[in-house]
Design a protein that fits this description.
The protein is mostly helical. It is about 75% helix and about 0% strand. The longest helix is centred in the middle third of the chain and has 35 residues, at about 55-90.
C-alpha cells in the first residue's frame, strides 16, 4: 500500500469510530480520576459505564439483573397502590391497614426509583459500524 493511498473506509465510518474511541477514553479517564481521589462509589459507576461502552458480557448481565429487579419493584409498587385503593373504602383513612399499605407504596416506589436510576438513561453500549 502506497503512503498516499487511504484505507477504503468512508468518512462517516471513520468519524463514528473516532467518536466511540473518544467516549471510551473519556470514560476510562473518569474512572482513573475517581479512583485517584478515592471516590469508591463514583469509581464503581464509572467502571460500569466503561464496561458498558466496551460491551462486556458482565455489564450486559448486570443491566439485565437491574432491569429485572426494577421491573419486580414496579409491579410490587402497583400492587401495593391497588391494595391501598381497596383498603381505604373498607377500613377508612385512619386504620393501621391503610397506613401499612401506604408505607408499602412509598417503600416499593423508592426502591423502584433507585433501581431505575441506577440503570441510567444511556445504558446501551455504543454501536460502531462494521469495517468494510
Amino acid at each position: 500500500m502506497n503512503k498516499t493511498q487511504l484505507p477504503a473506509r468512508s468518512f462517516e465510518e471513520h468519524y463514528l469510530r473516532l467518536l466511540a474511541d473518544s467516549i471510551e477514553r473519556t470514560a476510562l479517564a473518569e474512572l482513573e480520576f475517581h479512583r485517584t481521589l478515592g471516590h469508591r462509589r463514583r469509581a464503581e459507576r464509572a467502571e460500569r459505564r466503561y464496561e458498558q461502552l466496551n460491551g462486556s458480557p458482565a455489564a450486559a448481565s448486570s443491566r439485565a439483573r437491574t432491569y429485572g429487579a426494577a421491573r419486580v419493584m414496579q409491579v410490587a409498587a402497583v400492587v401495593a397502590l391497588l391494595l391501598l385503593a381497596v383498603e381505604v373504602p373498607f377500613f377508612g383513612v385512619r386504620s393501621w391497614w391503610t397506613g401499612a399499605a401506604d408505607l408499602l407504596v412509598v417503600a416499593f416506589t423508592f426502591a423502584w426509583f433507585m433501581l431505575d436510576t441506577r440503570r441510567g438513561a444511556g445504558s446501551e453500549p455504543v454501536q460502531t459500524p462494521p469495517a468494510s
